[in-house]
Design goal:
The chain has 202 residues and is α/β, with parallel strands linked by helices. It contains six helices and nine strands. Helix 4 runs parallel beside helix 6. It comes from Thiomicrorhabdus heinhorstiae.
């Protein structure tokens, strides 16, 4: 079945393709939680799908300003009341929310960010977490300084050609930053197409 882009809305085929497997991986961690902050909501597709499938959650979207109109369109068309309009959030700026959340979710963000952005993410993120809150990060990671596949190596080269500051991050480096922020690794979940979901807990 082909994926048809909805009229006047941003549409990411990858979000449509991976939303089901991501839901299966994260649902257990969110069963007993109430509030989620999604960092880098992108088109908004993940937000409305996860919020629809887990109606007990209040799902707070966020992104840079240029993404907000698309996210708002997805939320408006969904008719869901448990997805909150996007807030402006740049992980390297002092505009993090003052609220605290039971969970943080972010998909396909770390490899777009520069290393300084990921460092800032872990420096600030504890301030928006309740005790026992979790962080779930979806995307590709390197292990022991090596790519996990040839396709990830090609993807990393493409990323760096587009933006020299971006690129696939090393799991061990991210985990060191997480530990420094007072987070413990709960799980490292293998996902299709050489992606992972890293789950940390405060």
């Amino acid at each position: 079945m082909s994926l048809i882009q909805p009229a006047n809305k941003p549409f990411a085929p990858s979000s449509e393709e991976n939303k089901h497997v991501i839901l299966q991986a994260i649902q257990t961690y969110l069963d007993n939680r109430k509030t989620v902050l999604e960092i880098g909501s992108g088109t908004g597709q993940h937000a409305v799908y996860f919020a629809e499938q887990m109606p007990h959650l209040i799902w707070q979207t966020s992104d840079l300003l240029e993404a907000h109109s698309g996210i708002q369109q997805w939320i408006a068309d969904s008719g869901l009341e448990n997805v909150m309009p996007p807030i402006l959030l740049n992980v390297s700026e002092d505009n993090w929310p003052t609220s605290q959340y039971d969970a943080i979710f972010s998909a396909n963000s770390f490899h777009i960010m520069g290393k300084n952005n990921v460092e800032d993410f872990f420096e600030y993120v504890s301030n928006v977490l309740n005790d026992q809150s979790i962080i779930m990060i979806y995307g590709p990671f390197n292990y022991n300084g090596h790519y996990t596949s040839d396709s990830n190596a090609r993807f990393d080269q493409w990323l760096k050609q587009r933006d020299p500051n971006s690129g696939i991050k090393d799991f061990e480096w991210c985990h060191q930053l997480a530990q420094k922020a007072g987070l413990s690794l709960l799980n490292d979940i293998p996902m299709p197409q050489n992606n992972r979901i890293l789950v940390w807990q405060k």
